[in-house]
Amino acid sequence: MFKPITAIAAVLIAGALVVPTVSQAAEISSVRVSYADLDLGSAPGQHALRGRIAFAARVVCEFEDSRQLEVAKATNLCRSDAIDGAEPQLEAAIASARHPTVTVGGAAALIVTAR
What we know:
- The chain is mainly α.
- 63% of the residues lie in helices and 9% in strands.
- A two-stranded antiparallel sheet has the order 1-2.
């Protein structure tokens, strides 16, 4: 007699555990990319920061490893959008390096975000 009640309770508990996972997937993921150690006034420094941004895009757009074409397309689109979204920050950082000013408490970092 208690077996159906136990089975129903198990299904309800399992359903409750799935809801937070689904809501967490909807959150925007972002990564802070530091360039404090780079000379953005130089081509090698700019190249290194672009590499860090590309790596951060791979981190924030990490989907399950799949051979499905649609998942691969979504992953690539996410990564290119994340890189494009960081471009204005990159350009501002390079411009700031070319025309330095004194800043107090300024952070030498940018944010790469998955959309």
